[in-house]
Amino acid sequence: MPILTITLFLPLVGAAVLLFLPKEDAERIRRVTLGFALATFLASLLILPRFEFGRREIQLVEQAAWIPLVGVQYKVGVDGLSLVLVLLTTLLTVLSVLYSFRENHRVKEYNLLFLLLETGMLGVFFALDFFLFYVFWELSLVPMYFLIGIWGGPRREYAAIKFFLYTLVGSLAMLLAILLLYFHLPAGQRTFDVLEIIRQRPLSGTGLLAQLAFWGFFLSFAIKVPMWPFHTWLPDAHVEAPTAGSVILAAVLLKLGTYGFVRFSLPLFPEVFHQHALLIATLAVIGVIYGALVAMAQTDLKKLVAYSSVNHMGYVMLAVAAAAYAYGRPELSDAAATALNGATMEMLAHGIITGALFLVVGVIYDDRTHTRGVDDFGGLWAVLPKYGAVSITAMFASLGLPGLMGFVAEFLIFVGSFSIIPVFTALAALGVVITAAFFLWTIQRMFLGPTNPRWANLPDLDRRESWTLVPLVVLMIVFGVYPKPLLDVINLTSSQLVAMLR
Amino acid sequence: MNWADLRWLVPELVLSAAAVVLLVADLLVAPERKRWLGWLALTSLLPAAAACVVLLGDLGQLGGTGVRIFADTYTVDAFALYFKLVGLGAVALVVLVSMDYFPGKTPHLGEVFSLLLFAGVGLLLMASASDLILLLLSIEFVSLSSYLLAGFLKADPKSNEAGLKYFLYGAATTGVMAYGFSLLYGLSGSTSLYDVAAKVGQFGPAAYLAVGLSLAGFGFKVSMVPFHQWTPDVYEGAPTPITAFLSVGPKAAGFAALTRTLAVGIPEDQVNWPLVLAVLSAVTMTAGNLLALLQRNLKRMLGYSSIAHAGYVLIALAAWRSPWAQQGLLYYLLAYLFMNLGAFFVAMVAAQGTGSDEIPDHAGLSQRTPWVAAAMVVFMLSLTGIPPTGGFVGKFYLFAAAVDVGLLWLAALGVANTVVSLYYYVGVLRALYLMPPAAPGPVSVPRGLRAGLVVALAGTLAVGLYPQPVVVFVETARRMLGV
After folding, report:
1. Who among B403, B404, B426 is closest to A161 (CB)?
2. What is the pLDDT of residues A291-304, one digit of tens each?
3. Contact B138, B57 (CB under 8 A)
4. Residue B277 domain-assigned?
5. Does the distance separating the beta carbons of A164 and B422 come in below 8 Å?
6. Quick check: A345 and A408 in contact, CB under 8 A?
7. B 102-141 residues with CB below 8 A of A?
């Protein structure tokens, strides 16, 4: 059974089914969407029993000819890295769809776009052919434009087109880089097969062209991550997007960037990446500190969470840069593997934690208070005990409290990176302090202190909201206390990559 | 003359006969039954297309080379047949939507179909002409039919203006081209492209002058800067189905003729035309895109966008050495046929629903006619070059060609232009989807237009999702041109 292909296209089938449902029947549309999202999640879980946990290489490959004349094929597969990100995607799509049951505006289009988006995101993680990868990469862009543009906040149109333009610049730069790689394969053996291109590294030793191709990929991924100074689309998009859109944006779409760095940039251009690793680490550290400081200055809770993403993605990039800097120094390969494990762990942790945080913002803003001002609240925990507990756990997880998932990730990143680029790591550790400060301050302002009488009668989490938030909180705690099963999977890819970079 | 050679002309003959029949029938058929003439026109296109396919099979049996007939003035090869099929497709789709558009606007419905078929004959001739005189004549043939079609709605001053402007620009550029051709003839002593090719090396700098002047006529047909100024005005003023036709039919045939002239007639080691066209490509796409940004009228915007697309296609000629360029040129024009016709068809629906061609007036159309709006998403994404559409695969080929021959700067400029173009294409989607509907109620789509939209949509997606059959065809076509 081609389980990857099924997982990949189930949401697309769902979208096609939605096309034929009458748009007035909102309830049925929601249920069908949730059904397909759940089925996709289930399908992605079915990958697990087939996955050989002892193997580091890409496995479960499914392929078919597509445009054989030019070496384009349909080829999908998974390894430790893509497997965990796929699970993250399918889980968060289910929760987002569930959360969106309250969306009453143009329900059919909304749900249809969500399912399309899911196929786009899954395709990026599954694809093992550059042409296919590019198709999915762009496919994940279009639905988000509409999600922000139609269901977003007051400045939605501006935010949506900015998001679209920024990411398209990056995508096209990457397209040229892909073509450069392709045309430097020996004539007659040209292919877009990712594994084959990585094996041959056609641009190594070409000097300028390798540099250009590296920066082409870099631009695409750095905009997506987003790294400072390419981050300016993010606060707009995150703040204006509807809650579920922000969740997917933060939890999965940003990961496409870091995934690209780890999956493509590292193995394709180890020398060039090594050469520029310190520059990239500098940008990462700036992102860490800048993101944290700007987040601290926000009074809008959603903006605060958005900037905390810049900060957290900075940690991921720090670890990736560290791993790149360790290229060619076998004595550092253990540290590099640790850093990469941390990076992947942080991708997941950020996905789960920030996904939860955006839901937390949505729960209070969308149909309770219609305000997100951190200072407009106060003493909320007393009024909303369940909501308070969930929010505070997520914020603690985000600031890196031991025992929760964020800590494991950051710990691994710092331990790994410190042996390779100690100064940068030390500077980045400053970010942790600032993050702790602004989250604690936020908890204090929102949940503690005297209760704001305006909110004295707010209802606590209802059943559906609990269903969206509690699984994420459980995961934060479970993997915070016992990350080993996750790390074992992640480590497969990290050790494979480090072996290639030695 | 060898009478047996006439079989290579069957598509042209069928179409000419049908056009003449239509012209006469228009006088005889009662006005309320003239829609019937449209079906006649459509039916005549079928045997013409079938003949092209049969000829393609015949060529295959001849061992994959082209056939030159009438003293080398006319070449039938897979390259020509490919463009003939594209041209016939354009005529067919435009006839289909014209059946709903023109009734009520003009009593001379049969003339519209007849002129469209005559223009179609011209397209078929352009794709095969391998002699300077025949080339000039076939281009004029298409032009004359197009002038009449653009100005067909005599009661509409804008249509009149379009026809006249088109005519004046066309006449001037054809004159310049004729001068260029006469130089080529004077220098080589022959009008056959094959003879010109053999002697062009002896021309020296005069060859550049001759090629440069000749470019004027082709540039006019494909809307290449600096011969593009007519485009937005004619596109805006002409009846929309005719605009749609002008944007794909003559453009594709213009590229076919230009390509054959350069690739066959002017060896690139003698005259460095790829470099000339690289510069023209850069200027054309940039000018088209920047000017399109400013437009509010959908038809004008598509006019500038068609200039930009001419610029993209010129990348193929600039990078002609690469097989990707040769395939890309053919591929792109097919994808462009579907996506651009589709965009104009949606413009027709929108104009019908809102009574306006202004983009802001199309606000909220997605609520009033969801399928048409969804089709427009595909067309706009395809015109931008976003997968999984034909436009993406086309651009992929063109950029690949540029990278292949080391024209990185041109590829990078193409990328920058693509990003610019996203802004105005998405501007249309913004109106359709993001803005609230200006008026309530569904928009009805006439049957012919609906069929045209379905074909355009299916075509745009099919060539994007499963390009292999087209890729195989264009590979054959380009090899034959090289012979």
Report:
1. B426
2. 999 999 999 999 99
3. no
4. yes
5. yes
6. yes
7. none
Cβ–Cβ below 8 Å for B471 and A67: yes
Is there a contact between A141 and B396 if contact means CB atoms under 8 Å apart?
Answer: no
| Relative orientation angle of helices B78-101 and B35-61, to the nearest 10 degrees | 170
**Which regions of chain B are under pLDDT 70?**
1, 64, 482-483
Q: How many CB pairs under 8 A join A and B?
A: 76
Strands A59-67 and B74-76: unpaired
Distance, in Å, from the CA atom of A57 to the CA atom of A394, rounded to the nearest integer, reads 34
- With CB atoms and an 8 Å threshold, state whether B468 touches A70: no
The string of pLDDT tens digits covering residues A69-99 is: 899 999 999 999 999 999 999 999 999 999 9
| Secondary structure element (H or E) that encloses residue B75, with its range | strand B74-76
Distance from the Cα of A142 to chain B's closest Cα (Å) equals: 9
Is-cis flag, bond preceding B232, omega within 30?
A: no
Q: Does B85 touch chain A (CB under 8 A)?
A: no
Q: Name the percent of chain A lying above pLDDT 70.
A: 100
Please state, in angstroms and rounded to a whole number, the distance separating the CA atoms of residues A227 and B169: 51
In the block, residue with structure tokens 């069928």: B14
Tokens encoding A167: 């990411």
Query: Residue A129: what are its φ and ψ, rounded to 5°?
Result: -135, 130
Dig out the tokens for B462 from the structure.
Answer: 């099919």
- What's the token pair of residue A332? 């550092």
| Tens-place pLDDT, residues B129-154 | 999 999 999 999 999 999 999 999 98
Cβ of B387 and A142 within 8 Å? no
Q: Report the domain count for chain B.
A: 1
> What is the nearest CA distance from B427 to chain A, expressed in angstroms?
9
Burial state string for A270-285 with b = 16 or more CB within 10 A and e = fewer than 16 = bbbbbbbbbebbbbbb
- Given an 8 Å threshold on Cβ–Cβ distance, is B387 in contact with A66? no
- Asked whether residue B291 is assigned to any structural domain, the reply reads yes
- Cβ count near A360 (within 10 Å): 27
- Mean pLDDT over A254-273 rounds to 95
Q: What is the pLDDT of residues A309-339, one digit of tens each?
A: 999 999 999 999 999 999 988 889 999 999 9
Instruction: Decide: helix, strand or coil at residue A62.
Output: strand
**A223 beta partners:** none
Structure tokens at B13: 């003959």
Residues in chain A: 502
Residues in B touching A160 (Cβ below 8 Å) = 434
In a domain, B388, yes or no: yes
Q: How is residue B165 written in tokens?
A: 């402007």
Q: Spell out a b/e string for B377-407, using b for 16 or more CB atoms within 10 Å of the CB, else e.
A: bbbbbbbbbbbbbbbbbbbbbbbbbbbbbeb
Would you say residue B114 lies in a domain? Answer: no
CA A225 to CA A158: how far, in whole Å? 20
H-assigned helices in B223-297? 230-237, 240-260, 273-293
pLDDT for the residue numbered B205: 84
Q: In whole angstroms, give the CA distance from residue A221 to residue A225.
A: 6
State which amino acid sits at residue A145: Y
- Using the structure block, give the residue that is written with the tokens 């007849």: B114
* pLDDT of amino acid A216: 96
In the chain, the amino acid numbered B295 is: Q
Structural domain of B453: 272-483
**B457 vs chain A: nearest CA distance in angstroms?**
16
Burial status of residue B209 (CB atoms within 10 A of its CB: 0-12, 13-18, 19 or more): middle
- pLDDT value at residue B483: 44
The answer to pTM > 0.80 is yes
Residue A139 CA to residue A219 CA, distance in Å, equals 18
pLDDT at B333: 95
Number of neighbours of residue B230 by Cβ within 10 angstroms = 22
Determine, for residues A183 and B399 on separate chains, whether the beta-carbon distance falls below 8 Å.
Answer: no
